């Protein structure tokens, strides 16, 4: 049979390809090489010496640069180290150990804590919950974001529901951007827990692949308008703007939450790396500078997303469905018996994110979702990997026919 023969040929080729993680390619990192020579001055705009301790909140000029991009007033933005994931992790730890504004007690004293997890979602959010014994409840994603009927019901009926993970723009992995209606409902919904928080991980805020960027409504402002000012924790970073290992990250929230956050982080650190912050201000300059830089990324990775779509259309049309994202870092492939497809690919030397990773506890009840991360390999390797993946999917389909 052709499917078996194609698979045997694939294995024969002894490939070693990796589509697992959404990493920028070396050419993308090259776009930010000038950062390494900066800053030209270690003086911040307010005259302070960036080399020294201090300024826990981060440089005002960097906060002002990013404020409009992440939809948080500069005064309510905190600059962190290179990882926004670390800020998310630490926010959960802070909430466990120090009551968030509005909480009756520390989360660690709660009999049970539940977070809502739109699926498919980002595995590292789920890992944070697993680490701290937080129960995860999956919520299906629709074209405009999480199913809000389900979300509204769950947050209204259960005071244990303390949190919800959201990747609101070019979501990981579905590419979905939350609709205005979804954002409005998140801002306005009634929650049984007074200390409920939305972890608004806007990791792909400026990561457009087209000339018509997705627009995201301003959850922080809308929540404040609806009397729920403290509901939202916003996160973002330059991991996929400048250097994934040496960028800057952001936390933004209401004034009360920011005071709570800084109170807690003041026990952790005497101040962040302001030289890196200065470097980013000099390099990116302003919102237009970020836009121009992101267009250069899109020129490099846009063709990779087009290639994935082309190969899947040619090789898997009719057997699978997949997303054609307008931004972000991932394609979400829906194919029957996903776990078997991933296992066959592994045997053929093509590493994919484990099937199920897009769901809490690694359990995709439909065994359908495979996350494809096309940015790191070059075009030739990507073509081989996606064609190989299609061979595996065809083999598995033939075996179940
Ligand atoms: N959030 C999402 C949704 C991501 O996809 C990623 C990177 N894969 C991160 C956070 C990690 O961000 P950082 O590098 O700032 O820790």
Automatic annotation (TrEMBL):
GO terms for molecular function: transaminase activity. It comes from Nonomuraea antimicrobica. The keyword Transferase applies. The lineage of its organism: Bacteria, Bacillati, Actinomycetota, Actinomycetes, Streptosporangiales. Signal peptide: none annotated. PANTHER family: AMINOTRANSFERASE, PUTATIVE-RELATED, ASPARTATE AMINOTRANSFERASE. This is Aminotransferase class I/II-fold pyridoxal phosphate-dependent enzyme. Pfam families: Asp_aminotransf. The keyword Transferase applies. Keywords: Aminotransferase, Transferase. InterPro entries: AspAT_Ic, PyrdxlP-dep_Trfase, PyrdxlP-dep_Trfase_major, PyrdxlP-dep_Trfase_small.
């Amino acid at each position: 049979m052709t499917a078996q023969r194609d698979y045997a040929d694939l294995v024969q080729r002894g490939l070693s390809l990796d589509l697992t993680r959404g990493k920028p390619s070396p050419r993308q990192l090259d776009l930010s090489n000038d950062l390494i020579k900066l800053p030209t001055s270690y003086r911040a705009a307010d005259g302070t010496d960036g080399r020294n301790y201090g300024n826990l909140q981060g440089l005002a000029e960097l906060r002002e640069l990013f404020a409009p991009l992440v939809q948080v007033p500069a005064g309510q933005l905190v600059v962190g180290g290179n990882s926004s994931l670390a800020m998310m992790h630490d926010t959960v730890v802070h909430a466990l150990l120090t009551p968030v504004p509005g909480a009756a007690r520390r989360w660690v004293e709660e009999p049970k804590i539940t977070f809502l997890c739109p699926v498919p979602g980002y595995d590292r959010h789920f890992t944070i919950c697993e680490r701290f014994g937080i129960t995860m409840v999956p919520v299906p994603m629709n074209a405009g974001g999480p199913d809000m009927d389900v979300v509204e019901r769950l947050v209204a009926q259960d005071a244990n529901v303390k949190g919800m993970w959201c990747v609101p723009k070019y979501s990981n992995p579905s590419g979905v951007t939350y609709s205005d209606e979804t954002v409005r409902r998140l801002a306005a919904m009634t929650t049984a827990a007074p200390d409920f928080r939305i972890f608004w991980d806007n990791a792909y805020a400026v990561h457009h692949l087209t000339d018509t960027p997705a627009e995201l409504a301003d959850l922080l402002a809308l929540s404040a308008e609806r009397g729920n000012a403290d509901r939202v924790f916003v996160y973002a970073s330059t991991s996929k703007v400048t250097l994934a290992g040496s960028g800057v990250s952001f936390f933004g929230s209401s004034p009360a939450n920011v005071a709570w956050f800084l109170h807690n982080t003041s026990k952790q650190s005497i101040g962040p790396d302001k030289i890196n912050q200065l470097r980013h201000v000099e390099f990116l300059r302003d919102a237009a500078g970020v836009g121009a830089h992101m267009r250069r990324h899109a020129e490099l990775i846009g063709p990779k997303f087009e290639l994935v779509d082309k190969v899947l259309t040619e090789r898997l049309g009719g057997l699978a469905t997949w997303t054609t994202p307008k931004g972000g870092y991932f394609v979400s492939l829906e194919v029957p018996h996903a776990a078997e497809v991933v296992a066959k690919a592994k045997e053929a030397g093509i590493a994919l994110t484990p099937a199920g990773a897009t769901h809490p506890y690694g359990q995709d009840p439909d065994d359908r979702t495979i996350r494809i991360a096309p940015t790191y390999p070059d075009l030739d390797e990507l073509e081989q990997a996606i064609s190989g993946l299609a061979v595996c999917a065809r083999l598995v389909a033939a075996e179940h026919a």
